[in-house]
Structures are given as structure tokens and as C-alpha cells.
Amino acid sequence: MKFLTRPLLRPGQSTTIRKVMADNIATMTHSSPGAGMAMPPGFDIKSAQCFRPKPSERHCRLPAKDINVQNGTMPPGYKAQVAQLDTFELPARVTGSLGDRALGKALVDAWRRHGIIQIAMSRTQKALWNSAKAESQRFFRRPHHEKAACVDSESYAGYIASGEEVTDGIADYSEIFTITKDLDPSDPRVRARWPCHGPCPWPDTRMKDVMTRYNNSLGNDGEKLLGLIELGLGVSPGSLTRYTQDGWHHTRVLRFPPRNATNGKGKEGRGIGSHTDYGLLVIAAQDDVGGLFIRRPSQKEQFANWKKSAAGLLEDDEGWVYVPPVDGTHTVILGDMMQYLTNNYLMATPHKVGLNTRERFSYAYFHEPAFQAVMKPIEEMCGRDHQQEGSKEEESDEGIHYGTHFTNMFIRNYPDRITTARLLAEDRYRLLATEELRTMGRLPAS
Ligand SMILES: [Fe+2]
How far is the CA of 31 from the centre of ligand 1 (A)? Predict the structure, then answer.
């Protein structure tokens, strides 16, 4: 095992914020147990450095006693660098103060450098995560027929069995409960047969209550983060948050089997193949088992998942970074729409999941634009000298309709699901092109 560390703090540094250069990376192998606008083909239609920050220096730092990095947890069979990420603490409100601007800049810098950040859970969130994890375990331990009954033919919410999801043509071993906007059948959007709109088939109200409260809390963090990113980028207020009114936020509650106890449908040791996620932010919690790998932004690796699928991207190549569990923190990575809106300044984070020696539970909340949002790159971000020369998006006139992007991704990932069959059979996909579905806040004419 070889640790490549460098001094993180420069005492006496005169900048407003002493940056923690959070790329302490250790290279190691496993040594102990411990995610286009076109219709998809085939369809017709840190051991953290801690110091006492001034009150205005709100980015970081958990007291050392609260840091509990689960080292030595990398899944067997993988070779990767191990991230030691800085942990940021979000303010109660984002007001645009100098401290907020500095924090926003620090967050943007961290994503551009590492592709991922950690934020500290509040005390309430710790309790909510523990409750959500317990509910997740209670759900996944139900008999298969009970879980399999939790599906809906209109929304993509509900149960996804291990081996049902496909990434780059290979079955994933993840077992999932997906939560999308829980709409009553009487909702006008459901009655108008809008794609992906429908109820969430909860197994019981206890799971619904706990996870709804947790998601609402994560949603608050999502909005704060977007406001901070706007400040960090120096773009107009609302450049990102204008799209998240009635955002199409959703969640994937995940269980991964131990690598020696799979159903054989996928690839040995692979939990989820490499991919990028669809929207703006992914705020995630994981238990102490470990399995997440990400790639840092690189000038050599160019991709745009909304144009050409990034599924399977560099999956077996070198250059992956393992993200060990850190108790009391959420990780935050970026999605396709953040990359698009910022004109490649903030890149979507490629990630994948490996299976470990024990079963693993994680929880990924996706903070998204509204289903009806039609987005274009932020003007102030166009023409800037970005890392991805030659891949600028200024020439895009039509913009991206988030609902179409989301629907394409789910059709692609769940080609055999009842929801996909109904969506296609009822020609719902056609509605995505209508004015009604491309105007934020508009409801169907009754
Ligand atoms: Fe993902």
C-alpha cells in the first residue's frame, strides 16, 4: 500500500478561505473485507483535514471525532485509488453573503477537481438516514412476491429485481425501490397519460412516511447546493433554480447482494455498470460496506450522455477512484443536465458500483429539473474557456427537454418493464413533443 499525500493546509495563508486540497489519494488494492435526446435504438417511436473555521468559513469541517472513514472496504477484485474527500457543511440558508460565495466557489472547485464532494449530515438527517436504512432493509427482506407486487404500469416507481436493470447491455445486480413523484390516479397529468406520471406503489405507509421526510430534507440541501453553485459560478441567481420549481426529483433505494450470493444474471463482482446520472445533483448515503467508484473530470475523457449513451464508459479501464463510506456524510455528484447547463464546466460524474463481501445498502436522491423544463446552456457559461475545448453547446438551439431525457433513460434501462410496454403501446411518447409537456407549470387541458 502506498500513500501519496501532500500538505493540505498552508497555515497563515492569506486567502479568505483556506482551501483544503482534497485530493489526498492513496493507491491500494483490496486487502480486507470490509449510471440522447433521440429515442433509444430498438424502439419505434479526506482522512479529512480538520481545523476550526471562522463562522463565515462554512465549508467543512467535521470535528475529528466525528470522522469515521471506513478504510479497507474496497470490494475484492478492484484496483483503484482511494478518495479522501473534504466534508463541507451547508448553511441554514443561502443568502448570497460573502461566506456563501466563498463556499460556492469552493464547492465548484472541488467538483471540477474530484468529481465528488461530501456534505455533513445534520443531526436530523442522521436520524432520517438511519430510519430510511432500516425501512430499506425491512423492504428488501420481504418475500419476492411481496416486493414484485410493488410496481406501477404508469410510473417507473417501485421494485426492480436484481438483474432487471440493464447498463450497457449487461444486467446489474442491484435490487432497487425507485421513488418518483407520487401522483394520485386522479391527478390531471396522470389522467392525461403523461409519460412516467403515476403513483408510487409503496408497500406500506411507514416506508412512505420515512422516505418522504428524508427526501424532503435532501431536497432542501439540493436547492441550497444549486444556489451555492450559482454563486460559485458567478452566474445570475436562478440560472439553475429556475428549473427546479416542481422538480422531477426521485430516489433509488438500493441493495447490493454479496458478490458470492448473486442470481447469476450479471457479471461477477459488478453491482452497477459505469454510467452518468441524468439530472443536476445526486445526493447519496451509503452504509459501512463500500462499493462506489467514480472518475474524476479529465480533459481526455469527453462524453455527453444526452447525445450518446455514456453507459459502460471506460468501465474496465484504469483511473477509477474508490469512495469509502464516511459516517455522517452524504456524497454529492453531478448529472448530465448540470454538465449541459454549465457548458461542460461542471461535468457529470461517471460512476459504477462493485459488489463486496457483504450485502450493501445505499440511498441515492436525484435533485432534478421539472419534467416539463426545456433547458439551454447558461449564457454566462458560454464562451468561457472550459476544459473541454471543441465540445461547447452554444450551437444547440432547441435545448434539452428534461422529460424526454428522463423517459429515454428509463426506457433504455428497463426495456422489459410493464411501464415501458404500456408507454409504447399507448403511444405516450408522442406527448413529449407537445407544447403542454414543454411548458413548466402547465397542466393538461381537461
Ligand atoms: Fe447512478
Answer: 26
User: Which segments of 68-214 are extended strands (E)?
Assistant: 79-84, 87-88, 117-120, 158-160, 166-167, 170-171, 175-179
Q: Is 330 helix (H, G, I), strand (E, B) or coil?
A: strand
User: How far, in Å, from the CA of 248 to the mean position of ligand 1?
Assistant: 16
Q: How far is CA 437 from CA 44, 102, 189, 335, 370, in A?
A: 20, 38, 10, 22, 10
Ion ligand 1: residues, CB < 5 A: 35, 277
Q: How many residues does the chain have?
A: 446
For residue 252, name the pLDDT band (cuts at 50, 70, 90): very high
Q: Is 37 within a domain? A: no
Q: Cell 452524504 identifies what position?
A: 330
Cα(95) to centroid of ligand 1, in Å? 31
- Whole domain around residue 393: which residue ranges? 51-438
Q: How many domains is the chain built from?
A: 1
Which stretches of 292-379 are DSSP H helices? 336-341
Please give the distance, rounded to the nearest whole angstrom, from the Cα atom of residue 275 to the centre of ligand 1.
6
CATH (domain of 188): 2.60.120.330
Average pLDDT score over residue span 16-28: 33
* 242 CA from centroid of ligand 1 (Å): 24
Q: Quick check: 154 and 197 in contact, CB under 8 A?
A: yes
Euclidean distance between the first and the last CA atom of the chain, given in angstroms as a whole number: 65
Look at residue 178 and tell me if it is in a domain: yes
Identify the H or E element spanning 2. strand 2-4
Residue 306 has pLDDT above 90, yes or no: no
Kindly give the distance from the C-alpha atom of residue 283 to the centroid of ligand 1, in angstroms, as a whole number. 10
Residue 8 lies in a domain: no
Judge whether 38 lies within some domain.
no
Q: For residue 276, how far is its CA from the centre of ligand 1 (angstroms)?
A: 6
The pLDDT-based confidence of 181 (bands split at 50, 70, 90) is very high
Which residues of 172-303 form beta strands (DSSP E)? 175-179, 250-256, 270-275, 281-286, 292-294
